[in-house]
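STRUCTURE REQUEST FORM
Protein name: histidine kinase
Source organism: Nostoc punctiforme NIES-2108
Requested output: structure tokens
Priority: standard
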Amino acid sequence: MSSENQRVSNSETDAFFVFADNDDTFIFADDNDGQPINEDDRGSQAVSNSPPAPVAVWKILIVDDDVLVHRATILALEDCTFEGKPLTFLHAHSATEAKYLIQTHPDTALILLDVVMETDDAGLQVVQYIRAELHNHQVRIILRTGQPGEAPEASVILNYDINDYRLKTELTRQKLITVVISSLRSYGNILKIENQNSELTLALQHLQQTQAQLIQAEKMSSLGEIVAGVAHEINNPTNFIYGNLFHTETYVQSLLKLIKTYQEHYPTPVDAIQTIAESIDLPFLMEDLPKLFDSMRVGTERIKHIVESLRNFSRLDEAEIKPVDIHSGIESTLLILQHRLQANANRPTIAVIKEYGQLPLVNCYVGALNQVFMNILSNAIDALEMGTGDCRITSETFSLPTIHIRTEIQDANRVLIRIADNGTGMSESILKRIFNPFFTTKPVGSGTGLGLSISYSIVVEQHRGHLTCSSAPGKGTEFVIDIFI
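Status: completed
Returned output:
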């Protein structure tokens, strides 16, 4: 395959082409008129009035099955620059070579394309390939034909995405340079617009992400206030009940002791007392009443524990870093999600395996880190709602839905928190996008696509740590939170 590249530049550069003389010789003679190349008139030369641009170049692809056309084009355009950037030429002598070169050089600015080569419409096939298959709409395409009857101008311009149509016999050196200048300027403007669009798109995405994070932060702050308020309201009556249980149980035990004493000294009570004792099943009552108090004590202790967890989780407004028990935050989050871990019509109870290492207190934003635990654990539960894969959570293969939480110290100054599930996992294409704002695989209305994006921001930006995810279809998913102690 012929792909000879020739770089044409000038020792001095200029923002525009200028012509060295007034001659305007035809560089492509027709089949019946003279020589195809005028070797005496070598083209134009740029005059310097701006500093050179040594990095960027204009790539021009010449596609023609006639070697003389390549030579003539080089002679016409050599020693020329545009906007301080030199020209580099790529050469193709067939449609096949042209397709290869434009695919390997997608930054080509201009294609000077012959129509009739190995087939009568070879050039047109190249146009279709560039626009339809490569989706390259930036490169400027100029058709140059010596056989206009094979590709009528009107139909070609209407049916093909080209930028100019020229007969080879009408192109003088000056006209060729004019066409090239116009095309390069157009290509440069397209790149500028696309760069500006990309910058605007990134700015818009950043703005949307910032706005979403502010909204989410406000929601979490409001949630924290509500949770703290509810916890406070529940805590007061719970403390009242819990504090009086001890005294109540003491009083009841005294009364039961009195009844037993009466029974010992008056084993045969009067008929009225005997009737009441039988109607209330006194022996069972005396045996079961202490058990009721034990149950009430366990229940109130459970409420106290829930309130404590709610208050721990609700510390979302604490802006300062402080030493925190990581395990306490995880336990608080699990308690809040307890109702989602229970069995339902679609799956059995989700098992939670905890392997906690011996961790010191970790300096972190406690409320924000709790939010990360909440987002990751919620996603794990969502994944398990869809079924389980064949991954190994521990040394055994669990067919039941399982979440595995493991903590450990790494390199003496870092803490790793691993949260894994044996769900169906994710494909590589999804895995690459999970931290993108607004990306979600959940149905419309079921997720905002912000949870993992915000979690990433909290871990990476606020805590200078790392948040990574590994997953594969059928192999479950594991998130790893890596933060400094």
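Reviewer notes: Residues 418 and 480 are 5 Å apart (CA to CA). Residues 214-317 form one domain.
Form closed.
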